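job 3f2a | input accepted
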Amino acid sequence: AIWYLLGRGNLYKSIDTGSTWNLIYGSEAYTGNIFVDASQPSTVYLTLNNLGLYKSTDEGATWQFMNTTI
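job 3f2a | predicted structure (70 res):
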């Protein structure tokens, strides 16, 4: 299972059930949310306060900016 953790605007990913974590996205935002598409688990959405919505279709390897207003 893949786990994601968001803390102080930094998004981390674990592919070993939390034994190790890799930073996959860093920002200056302090709050946000992570949403994983249940029908497409490789698709992840990231919202960051005042920075907007981002989408990844490759488990967080790359991100596409979607919108500044949510």
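job 3f2a | Strands lie at 3-7, 10-14, 22-25, 32-36, 44-48, 52-56, 64-67.
job 3f2a | closed
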